[in-house]
Specification:
Blueprint (H helix, E strand, L loop, with lengths): L6 H13 L6 H6 L3 H12 L5 H16 L3 H4 L6 H16 L2 H6 L1 H7 L4 H29 L1 H26 L8 H19 L2 H11 L6 H30 L2 H20 L11 H7 L3 H4 L3 E5 L2 E5 L6
Helix pairs in contact: 6-12, 6-13, 8-9, 9-10, 9-11, 10-11, 10-14, 12-13
GO cellular component, one term: membrane
Membrane topology: Multi-pass membrane protein
Protein name: (wild Malaysian banana) hypothetical protein
């Protein structure tokens, strides 16, 4: 299925224009040597002028990051193992929800359910609109409810939707290879609910979480790994989806539902809540987690501007 000519260029141009509207962050300004402007931005974000301690933490973290010469080598160290695994698994699971398959091949998918050509195209436009609008829910609630709640809630909703579609197609797909009008409408609604669940959970947060878990000294390497893994699995699923659809038929939805189940359990067990945690203190978050503290070596960490050694009980 070939992309529309110019579609990629138009999307890139749109991204470039939106990029002009993005403000600089305090960290990026400090890394550029513009600490005073970074202070002003930080004061605006916090709503107070009492940001000296936080600003100093950012400056010290930036100095440490700039002293690192080999971020890709550092990210392989044991102390960065939790973040590295998240950089690999989060984008992998994001693609294994099946969202790209539904969006890429929506017309083919709906036609295989018995929809007409025009109806298939309209349905694919509808799913795209639902995805865009549902992302606003995540923007409005992510700092109130937290990352874990949205990821787990979205995962549960996606599992239910995938299973419902699989059951309907398995039981109600007639000999004429068409669904009745009533069940066709139900399938479209449920798929839209699936897309909405992805839009307010794994869609944006699949990028947000990896971007905020790395310390500054390995952040560039971590983000590179996240993007590379995402693009690899996007390519792999796009190339294999039609073959999987022909082989599994309605079971393709159960295939993706099983992966969503795995990734929801993964988040529940292994992902700590990152809401409101500054990048400079992220290492402390992983050290407090019941599992990752056994993986990370005991090292001296800084909290509140004072260095203090933390040696978690490795046998607990």
């Amino acid at each position: 299925m070939a992309p529309l000519p110019g579609a990629g260029g138009g999307a890139r141009a749109s991204d470039d224009h939106r990029g002009l509207l993005l403000p600089e962050t305090p960290n990026s300004l400090i890394e550029q040597g513009r600490a005073e402007k970074g202070r002003r931005v930080l004061e605006k974000i916090r709503g107070t002028s009492d940001v000296d301690a936080e600003l100093q933490d950012m400056i010290e973290a930036s100095e440490v990051a700039n002293a690192v010469e080999h971020p890709f080598r550092n990210i392989l160290e044991r102390r960065n193992r939790p973040q590295l695994l998240m950089a690999i698994f989060m984008p992998t699971f994001q693609i294994l929800t099946g969202i790209n398959s539904i969006l890429f091949y929506a017309p083919v998918l709906f036609q295989s359910m018995g929809f007409g050509g025009n109806a298939s195209l309209y349905s694919s436009v509808l799913t795209g609109a639902v995805l865009a609008s549902s992302t606003l829910v995540s923007i409005a609630t992510v700092d109130r409810w937290g990352r874990r709640a949205l990821l787990i809630g979205g995962g549960v909703q996606m599992i239910i939707c995938q299973v419902i579609v699989a059951i309907i197609l398995g039981l109600k797909f007639g000999d004429d290879k068409k669904l009745s009008n009533e069940f066709s409408i139900i399938v479209v609604v449920v798929i839209c609910l699936f897309v909405a669940a992805f839009g307010w959970s794994w869609g944006p947060l699949g990028w947000t979480v990896p971007s905020e878990i790395f310390p500054l000294e390995t952040r560039s390497a971590g983000q590179s790994i996240t993007v590379s893994v995402n693009l690899f699995f996007t390519f792999a699923i796009a190339q294999s989806f039609l073959s999987l659809l022909c082989s599994f038929k309605f079971g393709i939805f159960l295939f993706f539902a099983s992966w969503i189940t795995i990734m929801t359990i993964f988040v529940y067990v292994l992902l700590p809540e990152t809401k409101g945690v500054p990048i400079e203190e992220m290492v402390l978050l992983w050290r407090k987690h019941w599992f990752w503290r056994r993986v990370m070596p005991p090292i001296a960490v800084e909290e509140g501007g004072a260095a203090k050694a933390e040696s978690p009980d490795m046998g607990a």
